[in-house]
Amino acid sequence: MAQFSGYQSLQLPSGARNAALGGQVVSLSGDITQFIHNPAALDSVEYTDIALSFSPYFAGIYQFSGQYYLPAGRVNGLAVGLSYLDYGEFVSTDPSGASGDNFSASDYLITVGKSHRMSSFSVGVNLKLAHSAIETYSSTALLADLGGMYHYPKGDFKIGLVFKNVGFRMNDYFGSARTELPFDVQIGTSVKPLYMPVRFSITAFNLVEEDLVFRQDGNESSRTVRAFDGFFRRINLGAEFIFSKNVQFLLGYNHLRRQELSLSETGAGAGFSYGLMIGIRKFTFRYARSVYHASGGANFITIQSNLHSFNKVL
Asked: Among 126, 152, 239, 293, which is least packed by CB within 10 angstroms?
C-alpha cells in the first residue's frame, strides 16, 4: 500500500498550463513555470521571463507562486521559484473539547534551477528548500530534482525524465516522527504531429510506488480490470489545441485523481481538467480548472511576461 507523504507544496501543479494538462507533465518546454516539473525545460526559456500564479483551493486554502529566470554571470542563467501554500486558520481544542486559541498552517518552497543543453539533449537540476509549519511545529527538507529532456531536431517531439524530490529532512515536526518525502520518478513525452494543431502529452508518474490503490470499493472486478485500472492510475494525459499563437485550449485527465476522489455513485468530472491561454501584447494569461470532487475543483491563474520586453535591464 502506498503511503501519504508530507510537504504538499511539492506535489501541486506549478502554473495553470500544467494544471490544465492534468498536473503531471514533464516533457514541455518554452515556459518558465515548467522548470518546477523538469529543470531541463530551462534550456528554452529566455532571460528575465517571469510568471506569477494564484490558486484558490477548498475551504480557504490558497497558493501563491512565482518563477523568474535571471542572468547569472559565468553560470549563465538561474531560475528561481517561490511558493507559499496557506491552509488557513484552525481552532485548537483541549482533550475535553473546549476551544482554545486559533493557529495556522502553511508550506513554503524555494527552488533554484539550472540547465545545460547538449545538441538534442538537455539536462537540469533543481535545488529545493521545503518548509512546512503547523502551529508551533515545523519540518524542513533539502531536496533536489534531476531531469533530462530529448528534443527531436526535425519536429515538435520531446521526451522528459525526472527524478523528483531526492533529499533528506533537516528537522521534523517531532523528534521521533519521520515525515515521508514524496520521492518520485516520472517519464513522459509531448508530440505535435505535422500539420495538426494539437500537441499531445502523456506522462507516467508514481513509478516507485508498488500499489496506488488507497481506496478499494470491493473485489467484484476481474483481475484484468484491476490490472488495467492499476496501470492507468500511473498515467496522465493532456492535449493542447493550438488555434493560433495567442489562443490555445487545454484538456487533461488524471485517472488516479478520478479513482480516489470521485464518489461511488458518480464521478462528477473528477480527474478532468481544462484551461485557456490567451496572449495579449507583452503578456500571456492562462486559466485552468481541475475537478477534484463532486463538490467542486480548484482554479489556477497565471500571468507571464518577459521583463526585457519593457526595455528595462535588470
From this structure: 152
